[in-house]
């Protein structure tokens, strides 16, 4: 897989939205046959299977489901028929061909951005026509690689009111999943990208976003990674969150990696050593995909 990152990538990385072209959409991995094979080989119990309510103001939570007895081809057909969003996390840990894609992608991004990325993984998102993915953010950096279908990615500034310090801390501390509270007024500040096969984008860390699929099956690679500065920022936010909740100290989002950020990142490492591990809070499973109809049915 080859990427053509802009010449100024290293100058604007982590501060601006950066798009590029790639040739990954030409791979046989993303044909119907390739996707069905992927869905058969990926561990079903690790697959995220979701529906989403209608786009609205406030906090919209994903609805979690399961698909235990479907073949890969049946599950792919279910996605084509209904409002289903599949998240195959860290595919590179399970299928060697995706480990090769990971190596190709990040070696080129590292060279273009003059970074040494870490904590790299490649996930595959397979989603239904016209589905809307709720307003949310990621703690790591993300590179989204579009390989099939068209979607609109709406990106918002990584700052209040679009994402407050307390909201991001809640995600870092695993008090909640990644959903954020949306207001229609945020759209005055949106950057909307029309993603087509052969396009890729990476954006500033923690930038909130939402996604609207076009009227066709969509397949994307969701590639998460960290940099040294990004890891320091995430750990500083962890410390800020602990201080806010235990001592009432109201800290703002870390702006630059100065001594204060480094100091808080070190504190976070010590807190994590002595603090009991917190399980990520997940939404309960409330639907399953029926093998006969290939449609979602409630089981709650």
Kindly list the characteristics that best describe this protein.
four-stranded antiparallel β-sheet; 2 domains; alpha+beta; 7 helices; Jelly Rolls; single chain; 300 residues
Question: Explain this structure to me?
Answer:
- The chain is α+β, with helices and mostly antiparallel strands and 300 residues long.
- It has two domains: 3-226, Jelly Rolls, CATH 2.60.120.650; 228-279, no CATH class.
- The chain is built from seven helices and 17 strands.
- It has helices at 9-12, 32-41, 72-81, 96-113, 165-172, 228-247, 259-274; strands spanning 3-4, 18-22, 48-51, 58-59, 63-66, 85-88, 118-127, 132-136, 141-148, 151-155, 181-182, 191-195, 199-202, 209-213, 218-226, 285-289, 296-298.
- The strands form three sheets. An eleven-stranded mixed beta sheet has the order 1-2-13-9-15-7-6-3-5-16-17.
- Helix 5 packs across helix 6 (228-247) and helix 6 (228-247) packs across helix 7.
- The longest helix is centred in the C-terminal third of the chain and has 20 residues, at 228-247.
- It is globular, with a radius of gyration of 19 Å.
- The model has no long low-confidence stretch (mean pLDDT 94).
Structural class: alpha+beta
The shape, in one word, is: globular
* CATH topology label of the largest domain: Jelly Rolls
From the alpha carbons, calculate the radius of gyration and give it in angstroms.
19 Å
In the sheet with the most strands, the strands line up as 1-2-13-9-15-7-6-3-5-16-17
Tell me the β content: 25-35%
| CATH class categorisation of the largest domain | Mainly Beta
Order of helices and strands: EHEHEEEHEHEEEEHEEEEEHHEE
Biggest sheet overview? 11 strands, mixed
Can you count the beta strands?
17
Number of domains: 2
Could you estimate the helical fraction of the residues in percent? 25-40%
Cα-to-Cα separation, first versus last residue: 43 Å
Count of alpha/pi helices: 7
Unreliable segments of 5+ consecutive residues? none
